[in-house]
Every structure is written in C-alpha cells, then in structure tokens.
Amino acid sequence: MAVEILKDKCIGCGACFKSCPYDAFEFEAYDGNKLGKVAKINAKCSSCNQCLTACKFGAIKEVKQEAKVDLSAYKHIWVFAEQRQGKMQNVALELIGEGKRLAKDISEDTQICAVLMGNNIEHLAQECFEYGAEKVYLVEDPLLENFTTDGYTKVMKQLIDEYKPEIVLYGATHIGRDFAPRIAARCNTGLTADCTHLDVKVSKYIDFANKNTTLDTSTLDPNDPDTGIKQTRPAFGGNLMATIVCPKTRPQMSTVRPGVMQKEPRVEGATGEIVKVTPEITAEDIRIEIKDIVKSAKEMVSLTDAKIICSGGRGLGDASGFELIKEFADKVGGVVGSSRACVDNGWIDHSHQVGQTGTTVKPEIYFACGISGAIQHLAGMQNSDIIVAINKDPDAPIFEVADYGIVGDLYKVIPEIIAEWDNAEALFDASEK
Amino acid sequence: MAFKIIVCAKQVPDTNVIKINPKTGTLIRDGVPSILNHDDANALEEALRIKDKYEDVTITVVSMGPPQASDLLFECIAKGADEGILVSDRAVGGSDTQATSNVLVAAIKRWEKDNGPADLIFAGRQAIDGDTAQVGPQVAEKLDLPQVTYVEEFELAENMKDITVKRQMEDGYELIGLQTPCMLTTIKELNEPRYMNIAGIYGAKDIKVWNAKDIEVDLTTVGLEASPTNVYRSFTPAPKAPGHKVAGDTANEQAKNLLVELKGKHII
Q1: ipTM for this prediction
Q2: How far apart are CA A199 and CA A33, in angstroms?
Q3: Taking the model in full, what pTM does it have?
Q4: Mutate which of A288, A352, A401 to test chain B, going by most B C-beta atoms within 10 A?
C-alpha cells in the first residue's frame, strides 16, 4: 500500500472511509482507543493517495518508495521523434517543446534531445533543431525504414543503455503505444500512458493543481528539491485524474496525447549536435513482415486541426442524427465529432470520436449537441476556446463546462442556428440598436 | 496436438456509468456493474472463431483480479472458452502494468508447464478503467513473443502457423504477416462479440483460482513494491466555471441570441 494507518493516532472515527473511491477502508479491532477499533486498508486499495488529507488526526501516512538504481547516472530528456515515411509527426515537435520546458526546470545543463530512427531521414534532424532540440541521436538503417516493434524496441534499448536518459517522452500514437511498453518492460522501468500534463518541479505542480484541480495541495512542499517527473493523466475511465511518478527506476517514460503540448516557435536555421549511432540490428531480429502500408481512403477527419467542431452524442437518438450534425458542420465550416457512446453504438466511425479514448481537441468553437458530458468526453474537449452545449436535460454535466448553454431539443435548435447563421452580423447589429 | 489459445481478460467497472458526487468529489460506485472489458470481449470472440473453424482448438482465459472476478471467467466459458484461470492474491494488489504483466506471465508459464506452449495469445488492446494499453505488449516482451497491436482483421492459415493481420493506424492500416506463437491485441473493429449460450451457461465450468504461490511467481516482482510507477496524487478534475444559459422562448430565439453572443464576442 502507498499509505499506512498509524494505529496510535487513529481514533476509529471512520472519517477516511468516504474519501476512498475504491471502498478500501474497513475497521479492525484495536484496544488502544476509546472506540476499540482502527481503520485498516484492504485489498481494494489502488494506492491512489486520495485519502492523504482525509484524516484530521494525522493517522494516514504516505509511504515513500526507495530508489532501486543509481538515479544520478541518468541525465537529459529525450523525445522519440516519430516519423512516418519520412514525414515528422506533429506530436514529436510538440514533445520537443514540452521537453525543453521540463529540461530547464530540472537544471540549466539538462538537454532536450530527439531520437530519430528510420532510413534516409537525416534531413529531419534540422526540423528537430528548429523546434528546439539541442541534440539529435540519428539512427539510420534499411531495417528501420518502417516501424516494427522488434526493430525499434531493440534500437531504443541500445540507445538507452548507452546514453542513459533521465526521461523519455513518446507520442501516444499507434506506434508509441505499441513499442514504449516493450521498452519499459525490457529496461524494467516505469511508463505512464496518455499523459495530459507533465511537471518536474513540485512548486510548478502545486501551481498547476491549485489552478486546475480540486486537489488539496497542503501535503506538498513547494521547496521540495525533487525533480522526478509528475505525469498527470485521466484514470478510472477519465472519472479521476491521477498524477503518476516513477521514483525507483530510470529512465522515467511517458506517452503523451497528440495535440496536448505546445510546440516552440520555429527558429529557421537553428542547429545542434547530431550523434550518429550504428544500430545493432539484423534482419532476424524482426519477426514480422510488413506486406503493405495503406493510407485510408476513408474521409480524413482532422479533428485536431479543426477550428470548429460540431459533435453529436447519445441525445441524437440514432445514427441518422449525424445527418443533421453533418449539415450543421458544413454550414459553419466545421468538422463532425462524436461522443464515445455513439461510436460504441456503431452510429459513426471511431475516427470522429472526441474524448479520452478518442481525439483530444481544442478548437475555437466546440458545439456539443446531445452530449451529456461524461468526464471521459470532457477530458478530450474542455480546453476548447468556446464550448456551446445544446441539450434537453438542464442538469446535464456538459452545461458545467459550457460557455453557452441552450436547454432545448437539438432537432429544433440546430436547424434554427443553420437558418440564422448567415444573418449573425445583421442580428448583432440589430441587437445593438 | 491441440492448437492452444490463451486469452488475457480483465473485469472492469463500467466506467461509462460512473458519476461523481459533486459535493464530496468522490466516485459514486453504487450500482456500477462489473463487466468483461470491451476490447477483451473482441479478443475472446476471435479465439472462438478459430475454434469454430478448426478442429482441436482449446481456449484458456487468464485473468488477474479480486475473487469476484471469477464471474468474468464464468461468462467467457459460457461463450465457449474451455477453461478459466483467475490469479487472485493480496500480494499482487497495487501492481502497475509492469508488475501485472509479471503476474500474467507467471500464470501463463505455470499453465504451459502442464499443457505445453501456447500457440497464440490474444489480449484486448486496453482496459476501459486504466486505458494504458501496456499490459499486452509487456506480456509479449516477457514471453519473448512477436506482437501486433490494434488488430482489426485476422486470418490464420490452414497450416495453423501463418497469420495475416491488419493493424489499425491513425491514417489507414498496415498489412502484416507473422507466425505463431505470437501476441495480438485486439480492438472493437475486429469482430462483433457473441452472447453466452444456454448450454454454456448451464454447462460445467472449469475455473481455477490460483494464488501467488500456485503460479510460482517471484514475490519481489509483483505488487506495489515491485511496481516502477506509483500514484503521487489523485483528484477529481475541477469543473471549468460554467457559462450562462442562452435565453429564448423558442428554438429560433435561442438560436438568434446565441449567434448575437458569438458575434458580439468576435467568436464568429
């Protein structure tokens, strides 16, 4: 368990029970206090630390973990610079930006480095430098032309063993999520999936938590010199947020959702150091054969780049509701999004899904139509500049995050918005008079 | 010799129906059903289709969880799996993905000691409560098996050796060939899981519950202590300050008022 009950301080009141999302507290008999019982933590505990501030008597103590390797042997932040067919993936540039901010928070001499694997991709190193990388580890080989789990895992392990990075960041793409877990297993270190926020300094974590969360930060010390990575991600289906640390092993590794972090402004002509590494890899290492790579002919849904998103939820009633959403999106120059429920019901393809298990978006306007606002959906869209919610249920949680809420039948309201859209200017002028 | 399939499955709370008590900020667990994780249902279904198609195929479902997770094994067997193994032990509680994969690997190795090596291992891509997608690849790594994740189409040749899969990518797919034994992680697009059948529901159930000692796992590799990652803090997301309701007695008035607001703030 990550917490322990100090029996001599526990008075057996049970006030801690309701702080636990997992029902992990129970009583055990104890003859050292008036009530004759103390709290006990059972097997349901998932070590979430929610109870740390629940005891007024100081009977719940955080159990710290001891390091298992020499942590100081590991230095610098790496980003896996994912490229596909010679094209740099946006998420890699976002991570270089984020990694640079983190590096400077660790120490002045902590570098941000990109790891570039592939074949004939040296030109991409320049892109890494222009977006903030100070060093690029370049590994080229015909066997690395396309991503394979076996090939990329082996090479990354080789690099980690040789150069010992403190932190490695990967995009939470179908590639990053495939091989990062294998590297973690091979290096016997920790990996945290789908992070949405990263900190290294405790003081910055406290600022983040105070500004954006309900977390009681009184148990954290802003002067704590710890610079281990604090990785915040949705947990429990997005119903909770958890901040994960990796205190005992190195490197610390995270995958990060595309679209969450900010790129640095591009500096044309920026340069840095290129370290060429010869991969220790043979054809026998790769146990799969890629027979074909097919780019989807289906409609490309570019939710991450969309300025306006019109999303439909369970409130549409059935699949045909997306015809109205499509009409709405076409009118306003937007892209069609969806909640998880609609995708699960088979009303629309997964590529439209916004949310924790779909795409994270931050458009200028997000229209949530018939979406109740489950936390896992909110996790993917609450950073939109403006959220407009249309829902029949005035108590729907979506209204708690919406800038503008319309309580009404979406099948009546949306056609009116479509009809009046082009009149917006005239309507506004009229309202001013 | 039989073609032996292992399916890794997890019992999860149906996170879609969980709500948060706005006053206390805690999860409301009452009435939240436990279900077979979605992607794992697709993993089992694909195994069942192999069993439907070919002679002499066995399916063993392996899970880790509290004792009540044996409900899930009941369901899998009622759908057509041959046996279920639940690893349940306090010593493995608090495991992160790394430690969890150590438990599952130990259980699979223990099973293989009695039954011979598995030919194919399926796992769901990810569980809806954690959404990490890490346990499948980590099991594959520790069993030294090749893997393909995000499998959306699957075909096993009649030689029971050659496999062709479509691996979903964000912008299309890859067509991949590999051979058994291997680990495949499955997604919803792969198939439509079947329901339990009557004969299966009432038939005999071969469900084993194993503890840490049964699977002969090194106790220093499982549980919270052995997990490289730990929870630092956890909390409920803070709701953004709510905006305001757009007034209007009719849909048309609401629409007009909304557009005036958006225009007035230079949003459109």
Answers
A1: 0.90
A2: 42
A3: 0.83
A4: A288
